[in-house]
Structures are given as C-alpha cells and as structure tokens.
Amino acid sequence: MAQPAARATARRSPTVDELAVWRDYVETSEAVRRTLAAGLQSSSGISPGDYSVMLALSEAPDRELRSSALADLCGWERSRLSHHLRRMEERDLVARRQAGDDARSAIVALTDVGARIFRSSSAAHLRLVREVFVDALTPEQLEAVRTTTAALHRHLDARAAAAAPETSTD
Amino acid sequence: MAQPAARATARRSPTVDELAVWRDYVETSEAVRRTLAAGLQSSSGISPGDYSVMLALSEAPDRELRSSALADLCGWERSRLSHHLRRMEERDLVARRQAGDDARSAIVALTDVGARIFRSSSAAHLRLVREVFVDALTPEQLEAVRTTTAALHRHLDARAAAAAPETSTD
DNA sequence: CCGAATTGGTTGACGTGTCAATCATCAGTC
DNA sequence: GACTGATGATTGACACGTCAACCAATTCGG
C-alpha cells in the first residue's frame, strides 16, 4: 500500500496492462518468426539466416560481396556471419575466396546451387510472409505496425547512441 | 505501372511496401529482444529464459510446479524446458524432484538462491521494459501495438488450428 | 622504415532451441 | 495380469548466436 512516491520519477515499472501488451508482443513476434522459419525449412531446407545471406548476394553484381559488405546488408556481427558462412559453404550454397586489393578481406559468392535454391525458395517464402503477416492485418493495422515499429526502432537507436558517445562532434 | 493481373488471386507476393514493413517488424522485434536480454544478463547474470521460468515458479504455491505445468506457463516445448532446467539446475537456480502421485512426472522448485536472484533482477528488468518498450510509444501507439499483435496472434492460431484437425467435433 | 593501433576476418567455448529417438510409467483392453 | 497405446520427461545431435581471444594485413605516427 501507499504508493512509494511514484509518478515523479517516470522510471517506474510498467502497469499490469502495459506488461500484458509487452508479453504479447514478444510472444507473438517470436511465434511469427518461428512460423516463417518452419516454412522456409520445409519448403526449401534453408533457414532465415541462409535466406538473408542469399538474398543479399543474389542482388549483388556478379552475385558476390565482400564479407564486411554482406555483414552490413544483413545487419549481422562479423562473427555471426563467419560462422554462418562456414555452415553454408559446407552445403555448397556459397563460396569464399580472397579479395585482390586487400589481402585481409574475403569475397563471398553465391554458387549456382545456392542461386537455384534461393530462386526456388523465394516465391513460397514471400507468399508465406503475405499469408502470415500481411493478410493478418487490415491496411490500417499494417500502417499502425509501420509507425509503431518505426517508433521502437528510433527509440532503440537513440538509446544506443546515448550509450556509445564515440565519434562525437567535438 | 502495369500491375501484372494481381488482385484477383490474393495469394501473390507482398508489395515492396508491405515487405519493407515486414522486414522492419522482424528486425526491430529482434533488436528489442536482444536489448532486454543484454540488460537482464548484465544486471543479474540471467537470460530471458531463466527469467520466464523463475517468474512462473515464483508465482506458484510453494514456488514449485510440475514440469508440464511450467512448460504450459512458459509456452515452451517439453524438450526445451528440460534442457533449460538442466542448465538452471547446474547453477542452483532450481531443483528437480519426483512427484508423488505420478512417477513419470517431475516437480520443479525455485531454490532460495533462485528466488533471491529473481527478486533482485525483477525491478531492473521491468524498468527496462518500460524504458525500451513502453516509453518508446505514445498511449495511442501502445494501443495500436495491442490490437495489431492480437490480430497477428489470432491469425496464427487460426492457421495452426486449420493445419491440425485433431479433436474435431465429429 | 619501425612499431603501435586499427581493421577484416576466423576460431573456440558456451548457452540456446529444435527435432527425433528413447524410456519409464500409466490407462485401458482382452 | 500381460499387450497396447498414450503420456511425462529426458537425451543426443545439430543449427544458431554471442562473447572474447586471436591472427594477419594495413595504416599511421615518429
């Protein structure tokens, strides 16, 4: 009892109601992700990670990219990409070779096998995105998802920027 | 221009615009999840999975539950829970023992250590939920998240029900 | 030109999550 | 009371993701 001097701080816990929205948001986004992953797996035997990599490569000139460029396009850490590429290379989906201009750098190329599998997976995957995500929402709701997602995204970025002063303009 | 005879099917791929919302939704929800996981890890040394399990146990009578009940509360598969409990047991966060009435069943109890850690993690975690999620959104946006999430959730459930006829009333 | 710091990328260890297989127990049937 | 099938839970194998350590090539300061 006796609210302990709340309200002034604005740093208090969420209400029960807010917490319920939070929980549902987390659970649902994970369920959606799992559904798409399962679809990709069963229709083409690849993972969402595989798909991201192959999508980026398939849109690149000569179907190849520097490892660092690929990491940026996927929004992945280098280490994660490196591990993933090793697994994909073992399955002959991609090939790695050295870059000519910088001996440190690696070039990742989509193999013919990889390109074929990507093409054959793409249509079904996109249909599933529509079926599970787009079709679940009215146009207004889709618009609402866009704006709320953007708000969350911006907020996270601002938070990250605040935490990492780095190249401050001084 | 020249829409390729779309609209009639409703089973076509998402538009570029819809796809952009989808991508942002996936990326952002993962970024949010990662942020919360990192916060929990650094403040209390536990994972979101640990937190879910301890939350459910802490609210249960005698701070213990049957394994199956715990799995239901967390919304996890049995196998996942079993693996997770083994790891938590090694860290003395929970303890497992046999149930009296059904020799197959296992009872999971929150240890004193686990209860203490959970209590000390809870406030910071909830504050972070507010900071990262609730505070990022206006009240209207929070409401929009609620309704869109509910729509996605319902749609997924309907889809799952359609795929699994099981106990149909025949 | 030499050495230090930086950059591009890989690796190992480890926690996590899924699937399929397994195992013991329980419930129902004859 | 043994045979059958469902149920509660565990296990092993393997993909995935993160962190920290590492290595080699490069860049920069002197």
TrEMBL record, chains A, B:
Domain HTH marR-type positions: 18-154
InterPro entries in UniProt: HTH_MarR-typ (IPR000835), MarR/SlyA-like (IPR039422), WH-like_DNA-bd_sf (IPR036388), WH_DNA-bd_sf (IPR036390)
Pfam families hit by this protein: MarR_2
PANTHER family assigned to the protein according to its UniProt record, in alphabetical order: MARR FAMILY REGULATORY PROTEIN, TRANSCRIPTIONAL REGULATOR, MARR FAMILY
Protein name: HTH marR-type domain-containing protein
